[in-house]
């Protein structure tokens, strides 16, 4: 080829080179548009936020309390002796009431009841005997007579129907001649000396201490 042929080939290559350069330039200039920054890269995992557990207030627990009986005054009721046995063969039974007090004195009401099925005649005074711990008879005088709890009006003869009653007042008295008191454990009571006695315990009360005893006669009404 001559010089003229070489030049013609060179001119044919120039447009091709220019076209290639233009295409490369266009691609380079549009690179930021075609592939945005960060696109295609993995996103960072979101950090886990610490979540505090909900606050729970434990229920208040009251410790069990033992049952304690309520404290109160300890009453000391006056003991009321009770008779033993059933109705005596005589048909009359004597019971002793609660202790009465007044001006340092003591007394009890004795009640005679016809517990039989036939009429019972009464005329006189109760039969009263102080007894010791072993049932022995104690030398405590028992006088027919009144006291500050009532005057003795003397015997009154009465016939009691079954279930009917009469009463007498038995009082603790002190005499000027009285020395040391005698301590009794029981009283033996009967409607009359031969009417069948019943024993009444005197434990737990100051009526155990005796000088003498006064009693009123059996009456439908208590003495005044």
How much of the sequence lies in strands comes to 25-35%
The CATH class of the domain at 92-215 turns out to be Mainly Beta
Q: Over the alpha carbons, how many angstroms does the gyration radius reach?
A: 62 Å
User: Largest sheet, if any?
Assistant: 6 strands, mixed
Q: What is the CATH third-level topology name of the domain at 92-215?
A: Immunoglobulin-like
The low-pLDDT segments are 13-42, 44-54, 61-84
> What is the count of DSSP helices, taking H or I runs of 4+ residues?
2
Q: What CATH architecture of the domain at 92-215 do you see? A: Sandwich
Number of strands: 13
* Helix-and-strand structural type: alpha+beta
Query: Which outline best applies?
Result: globular
End-to-end CA span: 181 Å
User: Would you tell me the overall average pLDDT?
Assistant: 75
* Helical amount: 10-25%
Walk me through what this model shows.
With 224 residues, the chain is α+β, with helices and mostly antiparallel strands. Among the domains are: 3-29; 92-215, Immunoglobulin-like. The chain has two helices and 13 strands, in the order ααβββββββββββββ. It has helices at residues 3-29, 31-34, and strands at 92-96, 100-102, 105-114, 120-122, 127-131, 141-144, 158-160, 165-173, 182-183, 186-190, 198-201, 209-210, 212-215. The strands form four sheets. Strands 1, 2, 3, 6, 8 and 13 form a six-stranded mixed β-sheet that branches.
């Amino acid at each position: 080829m001559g010089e003229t042929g070489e030049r013609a080939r060179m001119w044919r290559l120039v447009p091709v080179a220019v076209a290639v350069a233009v295409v490369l330039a266009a691609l380079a200039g549009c690179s930021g548009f075609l592939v945005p920054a960060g696109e295609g890269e993995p996103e960072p995992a979101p950090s886990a936020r610490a979540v505090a557990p909900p606050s729970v207030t434990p229920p208040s627990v009251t410790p069990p309390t033992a049952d304690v009986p309520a404290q109160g005054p300890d009453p000391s009721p006056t003991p009321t002796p009770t008779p033993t046995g059933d109705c005596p063969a005589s048909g009359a039974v004597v019971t002793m009431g609660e202790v009465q007090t007044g001006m340092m004195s003591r007394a009890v009401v004795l009640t005679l009841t016809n517990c039989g099925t036939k009429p019972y005649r009464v005329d006189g005074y109760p039969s009263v005997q102080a007894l010791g711990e072993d049932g022995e008879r104690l030398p405590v005088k028992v006088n027919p007579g009144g006291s500050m709890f009532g005057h003795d009006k003397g015997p009154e003869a009465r016939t009691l129907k079954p279930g009917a009653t009469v009463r007498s007042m038995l009082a603790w008295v002190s005499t000027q001649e009285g020395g040391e008191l005698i301590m009794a454990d029981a009283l033996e009571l009967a409607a009359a000396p031969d009417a069948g006695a019943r024993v009444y315990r005197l434990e737990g009360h100051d009526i155990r201490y005796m000088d003498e005893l006064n009693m009123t006669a059996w009456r439908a009404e208590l003495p005044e």
